[in-house]
């Protein structure tokens, strides 16, 4: 039986009274044939296990190497050394799994680079950095459910396989069981998907929103939280081919209600992590501070990680229109000095450099941009009176750019049908979506928060592949 063991986190918080305890975990270091630092993932802090010199057989001691797994029984005592308050004086040490030091790729002596750790993602959870990142990821996921549960939202599981392209961007992974070498064809040579598994062409979902809207039309307020897939060939530090998204959808909400919810949601998540993951945040803050020191002074961020999160907790997001955002960019020194790589004019889909200028240089805080041109946004967004813009909102944050995309939805059937026709979206196949506008249509709104982008913001990590366990990106699907 293994369940008598106590986790390291708990032991470190226990008053030592020479009580007998059992601890299990992996060896981080073994010094002087005497001091084992053991970690079981419950906290970044290791537990020191002391083996009495001469009391153990050499053969056993040789097997206590970095990465080996141990079962230790002993007394919990007040630590004699510095750096920890308690330690375990071992009475028995059992090596559960050996770890050949010649072959183990995770030697912690020289701090391994994040790039290298990405190549051994199956082991990187055992480092302090990834321990902290993934405990925070867990907490954040839990906080998301708690936030919506407290507000009475229904968690709706939307399908992973769909036949529609919610965002209309055509960046979809196909799902098929047809043979690649010789698929059935119609008379005109096109592939005959009627013979495919689902009797039609299907793909992995890019968003649960359309199905989410169906739920909101009955439960009033729902949210989804699941993986979404995009076959966009963006090899950047902010894009994944498989990422998780939280998509609340609310009936009886307009754009302002939507912004208010998104803003309080982000604040709630930050507050939760600040309260529940302090130790891990402090570790990551330290890590980031060291990384910042490597950069030229002009590129360093003004605030440390914890200060940045506190700032977001205590300050309202700036709210501006797209038109105002473009004006700010056109007036900016960066524009005048031709620092932007991409063109700036009304109608552009703002690039990351523009978004980051607004939040990092101009406002120095998160910004919600509303009223984007309809031509750069999805078909379902509610058209504004001006005939040019839609009731869209994006939330931009320092260091990342877009973290949330959302809108009030077009609830007026004729206007929606007209827009779909303009964009060549087959209304016939979307009959079920249009039915929501036929049978008791209501003003409604929603947004999508990219979970990994939120993770980047909270952890201060800079590459999105370092905040998801097994990243999927162009030319990369190991593990
Ligand atoms: O702006 P997007 O494309 O919006 C939607 O999908 C809407 N259906 C959401 C809604 O209104 N219910 O994506 C939403 C968010 C982005 O703001 C970004 O944070 C994240 O999803 N995101 C990505 N994250 C990682 N990798 C990618 N390739 C991403 N694409 C979008
Ligand atoms: Mg977007």
Description:
The protein is of the alpha+beta class and 479 residues long. It folds into two domains: 8-104, OB fold (Dihydrolipoamide Acetyltransferase, E2P) (Beta Barrel); 126-171 and 206-466, Bira Bifunctional Protein, Domain 2 (BirA Bifunctional Protein, domain 2, 2-Layer Sandwich). The protein contains 14 helices and 16 strands. Strands 6-10-11-16-15-14-13-12 form an eight-stranded mixed β-sheet, with helices on both faces. A five-stranded mixed barrel has the order 1-2-3-5-4. A three-stranded antiparallel β-sheet has the order 7-9-8, with no helix packed on it. β14 and β15 form a beta hairpin. α4 (128-150) crosses α6 (255-276) and α6 packs across α8. The longest helix is centred in the N-terminal third of the chain and has 23 residues, at 128-150. It is globular and about 85 Å long. 4-amino-1,4-dioxobutan-2-aminium adenosine-5'-monophosphate (4AD) is lined by residues 166-167, 207, 209, 230, 232, 239-240, 243, 245, 247, 402-407, 446-448, 450, 452-453.
